[in-house]
Amino acid sequence: MGLIDLSNQIIGRGEVTSADILALRRSIFGEITVTREEAEALFLIDEGTERRVAEWRDLFLEALTDWLIRQQEPRGYVTDEQAQWLIARIEADQRARDGTEIELVVRVLEQADAAPAALAAFGLQLVTRSVVENDGVISAAEVERLRRLMFAPTGPGRMAISREEAEALFDLNDATRGAANDSSWTDFFMRAVANAVTAAAGWAPPGREEALRRERWLADPEDGIAEAFAREHGPLPTGRLGLSTWLAQAFAWAMRTPSADRVYTERVEANAHGASTAAPLDAAEARWLIDRIGRDGDFDDNERALIAFLRELAPSTDEALQPLIDRLAA
User: For residue 215, what pLDDT is reported?
Assistant: First the structure.
């Protein structure tokens, strides 16, 4: 049975069984790679069934993560086209499913080497919207998902939380004020917002085009790493022992080439810049924080915890923030 017929059959009875999982796996992974058609079929099944065995979630996440991250060149890079498709696909029915669709976006951002900023922003929007639209209470599991999302290698904050992400956390804090939020929310909120005003982003992976260029250089039979090393140290040997030694030497040599040195230098310089610019709050940061905390005319325990934490983290800060520190941390 073809995938389309199989998915129509599953949707028709409104249930995904263990037998369906086996049939879907044979159909999807029978050709090793996952196709756009198969990705679409998985979404249709997820949206069109009410009863699903536990294995369904694993199949959905595995197949779609594989297609989004590992089946285009260079591996690990989510393309703009894929990100736009995923966002549109999830938004199509105006209902983001927590265990599959939202988790898929978080996992992609965790596992990819690079992803479009729009996908990271969408992921944060989904997680915060899910909290507000469901029971309005932030659970420990939702705090952990926010942590995974915002500090994922390709997530919205990367090494440093941005002003936009901090604004989203304040909005979520305001929307759930007075709710029986898990105690871990206070700790995460104060540390993430403090990160936004005291930290700086460091090294980021190269863009997709640069990554493709580097992959082509590595694979080029005439002007790649193997050929360049062969010109310096002799051709590829035939014996197994000799081959192992040759490969080890080639790798060590590659790490000393100008290209590798440049990549390493870029990373070191970016991290050093991040460390040097991570500092106590300046005047602009202080003004933003004062405005943001007092925007709704009220202060809650989480905002008080944030100010107390900042007082410890950056005791030498812009004087404009001192009255707020004195008021909230008293």
Answer: 56
Give the per-residue pLDDT at 1: 74
By C-alpha distance, which of 11, 92, 31, 24 is closest to 58? 24
Q: Where is 51: in which H helix or E strand? A: strand 51-52
Task: Give residue 276's pLDDT.
Answer: 44
The tokens describing 292, both together, are 């943001």
Element (H, E) at 15: strand 15-16
Q: What pLDDT, on a 0 to 100 scale, did the predictor assign at position 18? A: 97
CA-CA-CA-CA torsion sign (303, 306, 312, 313): negative
Q: What are the tokens at 185? A: 């929310």
Peptide bond connecting 74 to the previous residue in cis, omega within 30 degrees of 0: yes
Q: Which residues of the chain have pLDDT under 70?
A: 155-159, 200-280, 314-318, 329-330
Match 């500092």 to its residue by tokens. 279
Beta bridge partner(s), residue 52:
16
- Nearest C-alpha neighbor of 151 from the set 201, 219, 198: 201
Q: Is 46 in contact with 60 (CB distance < 8 Å)?
A: yes
Instruction: Specify the residue for token string 């879907």.
Output: 24
What pLDDT score was predicted for residue 71?
86
Give residue for tokens 């051709």: 235
The closest of 306, 261, 247, 249 to 281, measured between CA atoms, is 306
User: What's the whole-model pTM score?
Assistant: 0.74
Looking at residue 330, what is its pLDDT? Answer: 60
Amino acid present at 42: L
Element (H or E) spanning 244, and its range?
Answer: helix 240-254
314 with 308: CB under 8 angstroms? Answer: no
DSSP state of 16: E
At 183 the pLDDT is: 95
Hey, how many other C-beta atoms are within 10 angstroms of the C-beta on 115?
29
